[in-house]
């Protein structure tokens, strides 16, 4: 687990999620074959699922996120405080710069990717920080950080799970 300080925020990168192969086996084919539920009407200009994906393995990923949240350890998140959705990038797809306010934290999980695929880019006032994709990599960051994904230039799909952690009640 690595913590980084970037311009005015910290973000967390956790490599090698221990259940990556189970999560990929459970979801990858279904995500690649899903219809674009959001119709490219969001900041993600790629195929997207509905906002609240759920499965046995996604529940385990949510638990892992909560147990490893060291950005705001004083907040007691529950699995029900997290919503997860899928993004499936084909050649030419991208994500425009955006944030996830009013939620507290945002997450990106690299489900299927190659290291040379488009990175997750954090955009600060001083510089851009690029997080290279790696299958099993989880990135947790404050929801106010603007971020984007450059145009995907490859025929093979790049699949991420994204999510928000809302303020625990």
By secondary-structure content and strand pairing, the structural class works out as alpha+beta
Instruction: Please write the CATH class name.
Output: Mainly Beta
- Could you give the count of β-strands? 12
Q: State mean pLDDT (0 to 100 scale).
A: 92
Unreliable stretches: none
Count of separate structural domains? 1
Biggest beta sheet attributes:
7 strands, antiparallel
CATH architecture: Sandwich
The H/E string reads: EEHEEHEEEEEEEE
Strand order of the largest sheet: 1-2-10-7-12-5-4
Structure commentary:
With 169 residues, this protein is of the alpha+beta class. The protein has one domain (2-165): q2cbj1_9rhob like domain (Jelly Rolls), CATH 2.60.120. The chain is built from two helices and twelve strands. A seven-stranded antiparallel sheet has the order 1-2-10-7-12-5-4. Strand 1 and strand 2 form a beta hairpin. The longest helix has 14 residues, at 20-33. The chain is globular. The relative contact order is 0.26. The mean pLDDT is 92.
